[in-house]
Description:
The protein is α/β, with parallel strands linked by helices. The chain contains 16 helices and 14 strands. The relative contact order is 0.08.
Amino acid sequence: xxxxxxxxxxxxxxxxxxxxxxxxxxxxxxxxxxxxxxxxxxxxxxxxxxxxxxxxxxxxxxxxxxxxxxxxxxxxxxxxxxxxxxxxxxxxxxxxxxxxxxxxxxxxxxxxxxxxxxxxxxxxxxxxxxxxxxxxxxxxxxxxxxxxxxxxxxxxxxxxxxxxxxxxxxxxxxxxxxxxxxxxxxxxxxxxxxxxxxxxxxxxxxxxxxxxxxxxxxxxxxxxxxxxxxxxxxxxxxxxxxxxxxxxxxxxxxxxxxxxxxxxxxxxxxxxxxxxxxxxxxxxxxxxxxxxxxxxxxxxxxxxxxxxxxxxxxxxxxxxxxxxxxxxxxxxxxxxxxxxxxxxxxxxxxxxxxxxxxxxxxxxxxxxxxxxxxxxxxxxxxxxxxxxxxxxxxxxxxxxxxxxxxxxxxxxxxxxxxxxxxxxxxxxxxxxxxxxxxxxxxxxxxxxxxxxxxxxxxxxxxxxxxxxxxxxxxxxxxxxx
Length: 481
């Protein structure tokens, strides 16, 4: 199986620096599935193309099924057995991109995936013109699913279904596509997209999926997966449909609060029309959190509300849909987050009567901003844990003293509940951008001190399953005055 990656950035041979593979050499790496070769079919100043060719050893794979080392050395395969013994050796794995290729990509281009390049750090951080070609890719969901997965990430997608037999058109199309991606982005982002989505399209992991896979998914997809409209499908397939791991991953992704349900897809149909998990799925923690915040605002008879640290606008979207809120102010320090919020809210197509109720502001929550004054309520939903602790007093002044609404709602993770997340290492935070996570006692101590200093009363509510031993996954404080 082969994958090629090209750029026309000039000098194009700089691609070799970013991939940490010299364009003038053919390099071979031994991986669990066989041998991975990296070479450059073209390397000049105008265009550079790097190829990753994986030679799969089918006998080694069969041996791995009985307890030997397989993909990534992680134990037995997780794919279903072939229906006949010869099928263990004669199959599409040597020719079609799959989780085997994703594992090889992660091993061979590990440093490039991390975005590090000591020789050209500025180039590693830059958006480059890129083209990816995967000639044969299993795609359960067809070409439409390939487009639905890659287009939200900024790729132009050309996915052509491959016929079962070019000489017999009446036989129809196979489950394989010829995939070409064109876009302008960081090389590290492009590689991470491929690392996650190749096995998702194939919908088969060729190795045992352990809790460690959750951390790998969060690392590779943490910057883009939370806001992807098909994040549930991606997470479910990447984790081989293991429900406990899927729920853990979705809850950890939800800590960024950059997620939103796919409003255009019916329940169980968020993957291009394939009903993967019908029935009673648990309500995602992010949705429970938004519901809890909304219930508090209703109970406090709020009309003018600010969503501070709004991210890509998940809560803002819910607030705008509720006509009782006459003003919805969404603020974030990140211009990129506000751009994503505009896209999610479809600002360019928003009716005038709804647009008049919305304000989008770029501002820091640790400095006084008079535009935040006059609100009935301010919501800080999964925000405080993204600040370094020495900055919390500045946030306290800006929100509770300068803006001084009559209601402030704060949610934050409960670190005691982390032991219930399969695959989360002891002492690890739920998201890599968290600067801290508090116990219930620590959160209560901080909230009570703020309330006393600023003239508020405070009460606490659980969000999510309130475990009798470790409490709920999210803790919520309501400040009123």
